[in-house]
Every structure is written in structure tokens, then in C-alpha cells.
Amino acid sequence: MLDRRATFWVLYLPPLLWLGAFFVVPLILMAAFSFRADMRGEVLQWWTPTLKQYAGLFAAGSYWRLLGISAFMALIVALISTALAYPIAYFLAFRAGRRAGFYLVLLLVPFWTSYLLRVMAWKFMLGSNGVINSFLMYTGLIHEPLTALLYNRNAVVLTLIYVWIPFVALPIFAALQRIDLALFEAAADLGATPFRRFWRVTFPLSLPGVFAAFFMVFIPTVGEYVTPLLVGGSRGSMYGNIVQDFFTKAANWPLGSALSMIMLIATLALVALAVRIVDLRRLIE
Amino acid sequence: MSTRRAPSRLTGYYFGLIALLYLPIAILFVFSINANTTLSFPLRGLTLGWYKNLLESGAVLRAARNSLVVAAGSSAVATALGTMVALLIARYQFRAKRLLVALAVLPLIVPFVVLAVALLILFSALHVDRSLWTIGIGHTVVALPYTLLIVVARLAGFDPNLEEAAMDLGANYPTTLRRIVLPIIAPAMVSAWLTAFTVSFDEFALALFLAGTEPTFPVYLFSQLRFANRLPIMIALAVLLMIGTLTLVFIAERVRRVE
User: Fold this and answer.
1) DSSP-assigned beta bridge partners for residue B34
2) Residues within 8 A of A (CB atoms), B 169-228 only
3) Which of A87, A91, A122, B128 would give a disulfide with A159, using CB separation of 3.0 to 4.6 Å?
4) Would you say the ipTM is above 0.90?
5) pTM of the full predicted structure?
6) Interface contact flag, A15 B144, Cβ < 8 Å
């Protein structure tokens, strides 16, 4: 059928060209840029490829340490938010009954409100004349504001956990909902206590959702730069912040590109790992 | 059944966590009606003055308008492209299919800071000055996966026989798409557009790199954080925008449920 073939190209070319021009080509340019020695000259002019940036990057331990710290922070955030969200998902799936839909919306409203605003709200909470400090001083528990609350890695981790919890509950909730209730009755009939039934039946069956939730937080958090920018300060910066610095303040794009490449490769490796553990096709269903 | 008994502890946990989740948002709201420019307890008094000042603040409203324009435009493009990819996935078999799907979903995975610097390099290579256009282009890329997934879900839910029936009755394929398929997936496209709109409207990580002299609202908000006396006005607008976004999200959900 000729018109079906023609329609194919009409549907195929625009997204392909758009994603090619504004997604693939930029990433290729960035990769090419990381093999440049310096910023001199035009962006598109020919240059001799050099491994200078990567050599410097591999020689300096500080970048790797920061990448490690960022991954560790992401790990903590993913673990805690998954653990905190699990009972919520369980509640929604098994205890909320007919009002589950309403409770779900109630949980998601914070997630639908502006990301920047929610992060900023924490700045007002934790700041030296913020809510927590002024409340504690008002009650007389402290006389000097606690400065240790804001502008460090703990503040970043705390804020990120807060931001992620509603989102994390979703895949766990979906996995719990898929469990056949007859299995519970079978377990009860066979004499399993509720405790045992949870650990031997419910929890193992919910693991795909738990892993999905974990990676859905872990992967984007490794590359996070906005939250540390707002509540982390200089002591709480993550790997994404040095990439940002090399493209703004420091204006060393070749090194920034090399750092960015490392992050891209690390992220893709994590995704490959996640896909092996979680069956993505089941998630999309 | 014993699973229905003793809901108290879990229910308590749920509401406790909900309270914690809403606390920072409530604080923003209090900030917007607080008479002082810093938010410290006890409050000195309440006012609606910040909302009034807002109406007289040209730069703030302009940033909000910029955000609206970028969100409306980029989500329209993202919805069109996402629908095309969705149709290809649901209705065609071809060799590069998995590659196209991977390409269209990958923007969800690539860290925003990486995509942002890559686009920055592209635009400076082409000597394109940063503007609302460059932000909008960035947003089409990150919103496309969302629109694609929403429309594909709808396409998977209706019978391809409808299309075959139309073609048996003499319609050619483009006509079938326009007269049969598009009306059926239209609600999903509206929902996709609204979702992409909220993604773009709130987006800061890309916009910070791609903004020129005209900021979107999140970028402007960020630039004003240093000025404590401007903050309550910004928060007041943010509260209004938050209400607007939530309304959109609810409409998007409704539209999807109606099907």
C-alpha cells in the first residue's frame, strides 16, 4: 500500500530529525569537545584531538571522589525514600479501601507542585533565621541559631528524600496491586502468621516495584545539581555542580565536557544495570 | 479477613507523612501572606500586600508570561512529535523501531545537566543566541518521552480493526488517520499536552543554562533569591502558579479518566 508507506515517512522523519538535531548532535558535539585542548577559536573549527582533559581528570582524585560522594548520597536518598514510601504504598494498596484514589491524589499533590519551590521551602525551613531555628529559639530550647542545618550534604539528602517520597510510592503501589489476594488467603489457610505472610509472600512479590522505585530515584539523583545549588552551598555540592561550574563561572568547556561525558557514561551504565534487574516491559504495562 | 483489621498504625503513618510533605508547602503559603520579609516565628502579622505588589511588578509578571509561552509552544511540539512516534510504535513494523523507541525515551535518562551543556555547545556552535527559543527547544526534548508514553497507552487500548474497517470502506491511510485515529486519541493528546506543559513550566535545570536575557519564571525566581525584600512577591506569584499547575494536572487526569 503506497499511501501507508508514504505516511510512514511523514511520521518518521520529523521526530527523527528533531531528536537528531537537538538530542544526538549536541551529545556528539559534547563528546568531541571533551577531546579539545582548550577553548580558543570557534566551536566548530577543526582541532587536533587530545586526551589532555581526560588525563587531567584521571590524575586528579578530587573529581572521582566527588562522583563517589554523589553516588553515595544518591544511594542513601534512594534507600531511605524507598523505605519510607513502602508503608505508604502498602497502605494505599491494602488498607485504604475505596478511598485509595483520593489518598493517592493527596500524596501526589506535593509532587505536582513546583520542584524549585519545594526545594526553596526547605531553605526557609533550615536557614539560620528559618522556621526551625526561629521556632526553637522562640521556645527557648536554643539561644543561638543552629547553622549546621543548612548548606551541607545532610540538607541536600534530606531535601531530596522529601522531594522523591511521593514519586517512589507509585511503582511499589503498582506492584502491590498486582498481587493476587487469593495468595494471602492460601498463606493464612496454611497457618502463616501475618508477619510471616508479609515477609514470605507480599514482600517478595513486591520486589520488582521496589527495585524500580529505587532506580527511578537513584539514577537521576546521581546527576542532580539544582538541589545542592539551593540548599547545599559550597560544602554540599555534588558532581553535577562542578560540571555546571566549568560551563559558567570557570568557562572551561573542554574539561566540563569531559566531566559531563563521565557522568553520561556512568548514568548509562547504571541504567543498563537497572534494566537487567527490573524488567522494563512490565513497568510500562 | 485479617488484612482489613488494625488499620490504625499504617493510617497514622500515612497521615503523619502527608503532614510532613505538606508542611514546607504550607510554609510557602504562610510566607506569601506574612507581613515581614523574613519568615521567622512568631509572625508579626498577616497581609495580602505581596499579592497586590505582584500586580505592579512588571518583571515578575513578564517572567511568568515567558514561562507560559515556552510551556505552551514546547508542549505543542512535543505532543506532535510524541504522537508521531506513538503511531509508528503502535501501527508499524520496521527494523529501526527499537532504535527509535530508545532514542525517544533516552531524554528521560540522560541527566539534565548533561543535556543542558550539550545543547549549550550546539547553540554556541551555530551562533544562536540564547533566548526563550533555546529553552523551548530543550523542553521539547525532555517532554517528548512523556507525550509518547501517554499516547502509546491510548493507541494500545483500541482495536486496529477500526482502521481496517475504514480502509475497507475506501478511505486511504492518511484519511483513516485523520478521521478515525486522531479523534480517538485526541483525549490522550490533550492529556499529553497538559503533562508536557507542566513539565516545561516548572523546568529549571535546563532553563538555567539555556536562558538568554529573557528569563522563565523559575530562572527569574532563582536570580531573585539573593534579594530578601523581593522574595515574598515571588513566593506570592509562586503560590498562584502552584494553584494553576495543580488545576492543569487535575484537568489532565480528568481528561484521561473520561475515556
Assistant:
1) B46
2) 172-174, 177, 198, 202, 204-205, 208-209, 218, 221-222, 225
3) A122
4) no
5) 0.88
6) yes
